[in-house]
Amino acid sequence: MIIKKTPEEIDKIAAAGEIHSRAMQLVAGKIAAGVTTGELDESVERFIRSQGAEPSFKGYNGFSGSICASPNSMVVHGIPGAYTLADGDILSVDIGVTLDGWVADAAVTFPVGEVTVEAESLMAVTEASLFDAVDQVQVGGRIGDISHAVQICAEADGFGVVRTLVGHGVGRSMHEDPQIPNFGPAGRGPKLEEGMVLAIEPMITAGAHEVRIAPDGWSIFTVDGSLSAHFEFTVAVTADGPRILTPWHELLGAPQ
Ligand code: MG
Question: Which DSSP state fits 4?
């Protein structure tokens, strides 16, 4: 069942999203060779709590971190800890912020120092596919329009679209209906209606699309070891079009 939100409820998610964007800005300022993902996690948790909010991921199904930190061939759901960033890495940082019971969920992939041309391109295309998807968030459209926009953008550049992980509705719960695949035909799936709030999150690989779960039960890797990038927004469907509730792009600047 898709739970639609009132304009007042959407404003509450936006308030969580504002804290979220500032947390992402904090991460952007700390990303450097020699920093551990555990240090990033600690900083984010401290910041989120200082704002009177909670890190949504902490304790979720037993997850130990406040962020998901997924380097290189790890796609998503990395447990922050001892991993030390190195020049040339790319790192997906996914953060959830809960404020007054409402969740904002979004992710950015950051370069660490100088990265390869392939990594640059993968990140740029994944971010572009997210913005293409957001353009499809229009009353009267369908979930499939979002899925299709991601796939067209990513595959045009020869990248792989992860099939087995999807975006989702978000609200009082971090994961609500509908599921939002990053592939598939336009014009299919649930109709987009005013008040829906969607976490759209392309997960794109520089190789094949198959992924595997690591023995830790969380981390998802590409099977072929290729690099993966991940960008995510929480977006509301409004009569005026898409409203991005986690506007990290406004604080982080132009596509990197
Ligand atoms: Mg999500």
Answer: -
| Complete domains list, the chain, with CATH | 7-252 (3.90.230.10)
**120 alpha carbon – ligand 1 mean position (Å):** 23
DSSP code of 114?
S
Centre of ligand 1 to C-alpha 237, Å, is 17
Distance of CA 163 to the CA centre of its chain: 15
How far is ligand 1, taken at its centre, from the CA of residue 199, in Å? 5
pLDDT tens for 117-162 read 999 999 999 999 999 999 999 999 999 999 999 999 999 999 999 9
Determine whether 156 is exposed, middle or buried from the number of CB atoms within 10 Å of its CB (0-12, 13-18, 19+).
Answer: exposed
Phi and psi, residue 80, nearest 5°: -70, 145
CA–centroid distance, residue 105 to ligand 1 (Å)? 6
